[in-house]
Amino acid sequence: MLIPARMSEAEEQRWVGVMLDKLAAQESKRILGDEELTERAERLSAQYFEGRARPDSVRWVTNQNTRWGSCTPAEGSIRLSHRLQGMPEYVVDYVLVHELAHLLVPGHGPRFWELLEAYPRTERARGYLEGVVAADRLPHLPAARGE
Ligand SMILES: [Zn+2]
Prior knowledge:
The protein is mainly α. It is built from five helices and three strands, in the order H-H-E-E-E-H-H-H. It has helices at 9-28, 34-49, 89-104, 110-116, 122-137; strands at residues 57-61, 69-72, 77-81. Helix 2 (34-49) packs across helix 3 (89-104) and helix 3 (89-104) packs across helix 5. The longest helix has 20 residues, at 9-28. Zinc ion (ZN) binds at residues 98, 102, 108.
């Protein structure tokens, strides 16, 4: 670590604290591997569905741009769009919980949404994802263009 020479010990301590916080923030944004994603889905199933949804594999896919997640109940496989990477944890968890629920109930009928009520941040996560979609559709202002 590069520390300016004239710092007092107290300043140095504070500065090291700030840097450690930054590292911790980066760490929490680390992208999960497919194996970790599967473990996470298993934990969420245990937490919200008494372990009844049993995913065999959960993985990221890059060919899924119109859906956040999808699943094949017969195989117990779940796929998440790579576009979710970097989004808040509760949003990724929501999509996992959503696809786990589809392993139990196909379609989006009342029974499906009843299951989703177990996850406390369903509404918030859906709002976040709707906001992302809406923002994508806005015409880009020349000044805001990151090109
Ligand atoms: Zn669905």
